[in-house]
């Protein structure tokens, strides 16, 4: 253990060399330091405490009984050197990433796994090594110091070999060294051969060693793999630390299960087609930029591509047995296909360039992954890093070498859920926003159509509207992409849009109530919560006919008592008298009338008229500009006479009726909250006096909506008709009487004369007249 | 009022001709409309007030257009009221557009038709560039002619058109408002190279028109005066000349002379009162409640104010200021 602490990177590493097939075999290398003091057999040599054991067990029955044990004992110093060397090579990076115990199995004692054929025991197939993380396939190599079993003691490798092996240097020009081993050596290590640190620049021709299973060329200068195609039983080939540029010459080695090509100059993965049984492939420390040509390696369990030039990870399908994938120290930004690896358990991605979880989203889909490292990536700096990873990969047991506790997992999922909720919320928000935008676009379009219908009267208006509507349509181009179109198409299109979208929109945002489209006015009938209603300070009307707004103003007064700022945009305020209608609101401090859709704003006098008419509100701002004392005086100067004339010169009865009428109307309002006819707009004098004292003389200046006005005119016309006939009758009668009277006057003198004459004639004969009179008297009796 | 000629006509015709019937009808109509209120203070009182206000010319305030244009007296009253109410706008020197003037008109008469205002503007602007700004006085005088003599002008337009096309106008003068308006609009664009019609012939036609017309016409002597000064003239030239003619303005009697247009001392006094109230009050209570600015002109007494007398008799003196003459850009010629 002390050793471990002294050399932190030098952790145990294990490559589980899977004993697949009938002839599964076990390769196990155990650093002897862990064996020291442990059970197991004592090292044959005193310096053995640092040696490595390699145990290869063949499955053949014959061999099973007497497993070969190869034990390499190296002197302490050389081992240390090696360790140090590896430390340098992988420097600090190894500290975390490599110091893992994959399997606690082979720790302190040498293990003899009895029979590799016991397939269930696969996990026990370990190749252990002291020098580096083999599981990570270390940025180191597997040191297979498989010297011949040096019973003679542990000499340095070089002389050792030279003792037993003879390179026959043939005189031929090809100058391949030909290797011959001494017979006894051959017998001792019949299936293994180590040519470590031999300064070889080419592979020697190995003669008479067809049965060779393990071949080690570590630390040479070999540039090309050749001359080994006859070794068809080769299981283990170690070419760590050479100068190979291309993978080649392996096509006949069908039994090869472990291929170690770390620390070479390979640029491309190729020529592995026949190595179908490959179990471990180590390509770390090369110059590979792309993962390719490995999809057929269905038996591959360990793949090490650390310290290469990969930037994308893909093309991993087919690696159905892969349990461990090392990709440390590349430049990976994103990866995929990881979810197609059914057995992948360990994935090492430390020190790459991954900055977003989206780029490695496939990890979340892997059900087998239980261990992952991502340290040294930009993503690991993020605050959400751990939570996100844990949340998305519930099956994970270790992250960055740390065991994940249940607590962490729970917290992560809570946090991630929160995150997700937030995301959903914001998504909803954007959806809402989008919908709002569409709706407003739709309302605007409808409004334009309405305006076009209304305003076909004057051509100049028409032009303006057209350009306006085009503007609006352009802004809503996603709905109706074509920009030039006739009115007809606009109409038909909008009818389509109508069915899809709302024709009005009501929105409270902050202290502002936005009303889009005339339908929105109905919302004023809704029951607003006291709180909401209280916060509304600004009321903004858009795309609503002013006459319609006028009808709901009394409601506004009731529903939103705190509203002091009215905004009008696209409301068709055309005349000054329309402002009269605003006098009935409870309070206005600010008035904003957008020039868009409100032609009245183009008048030089409009502001003064507003100030004059709404004098009782003491307006603070009109269209954003402060109202000054001068403005007020000016307003009075311009329109004061009008008010004076209105109030002082109107006949009493009309004054009463003008005010009275509105009073009546207002009364109607109270009675039927939704009076359809209640267009009349003016102040109830009592009310206004109570609220803030509106000038009585100004109250006469009221506004009747067009609709109501025509109604009224209709009424007047009817009354007039009646009056006309009435007066005509009267006059006729009077004239008749007059005529009769006149004719009477004309006749009377004559009549009188006649009467007198008759009387005179009658009484001319006194006697006879007397007689007549007497006669009459007697007759009466 | 009781001229002897009343005896020459049968009663109803006379009454109609003098618009007595109109006012009687209207009085009854008003009575009906406001019967609740009126019943409180008596029908006799109502009729007194009504005919008083007719006499003073205040009866047209805020009334419907059909009533305002019903009689010459109403028209004159309206013109006068308009002048009085918006004199301050002219005094301020603002030049306004047709639409804006129309808005002002609508403040007094909510259903005042745009068409009429536009025609008036056409007189001022000689039928082009309808969006131009106009001075108050230019507009007012043009409007006066257009409004007061609108039927006459339509007939004139028809005659003018006929003269242009070479017809004998005397045979066909039964102008309807629509046709007349239509043709008058076309008139200037169809000008012959000689531009307009011969003045004397034109006058001849107008004279006979005036004789026959049942609508009010300008005094033919004054028309003659206008037409005799030139050889030929266009339709709008003629209207412009009418609008600028002092005699006609006087004969009409609704507005003061041009020089005195911006003067109205009694009203100015009232205005000063109002202003002192506004500024005084809002200075004393800078941002406070507008409170009681309100209750100002409690009508002093139910109107003993002077009945309307023709203005130019009263105000002949002031003729120095001629400030408003030709502020309007294209108003000349």
Describe the structure.
The complex is a heterodimer of chains A (about 775) and B (about 325). With about 775 residues, chain A is of the alpha/beta class. Helices cover about 35% and strands about 15% of the residues of chain A. In chain A, β20 (about 400) and β21 form a beta hairpin. The relative contact order of chain A is 0.04. In chain B, about 55% of the residues lie in helices and about 0% in strands. A two-stranded antiparallel ribbon of chain B has the order 1-2. Chain B is globular, with a radius of gyration of 22 Å. The relative contact order of chain B is 0.11. Chains A and B meet through α15, α16, β30 and α19 of A and α1, α2, α3, α4 and α6 of B. Chain B: It comes from Chrysemys picta bellii. Chain B: One of its GO terms (biological process) is cilium disassembly.
Give me the Rg of chain A, rounded.
Answer: 54 Å
Rg over C-alpha atoms of chain B, rounded to the nearest angstrom: 22 Å
**Count of DSSP-assigned helices of chain B:** 17
Low-confidence stretches of chain B: 171-193, 282-307, 309-333
Share of helical residues of chain B: 55-70%
Q: Supply the helix-strand structural class of chain A.
A: alpha/beta
* Number of beta strands of chain A: 30
How much of the sequence of chain B is in beta strands? under 5%
Distance between the termini of chain A: 172 Å
GO molecular function (chain B): protein-macromolecule adaptor activity
Organism (chain B): Chrysemys picta bellii (Western painted turtle)
Family (chain B): Belongs to the CSTPP1 family.
Protein name (chain B): Centriolar satellite-associated tubulin polyglutamylase complex regulator 1
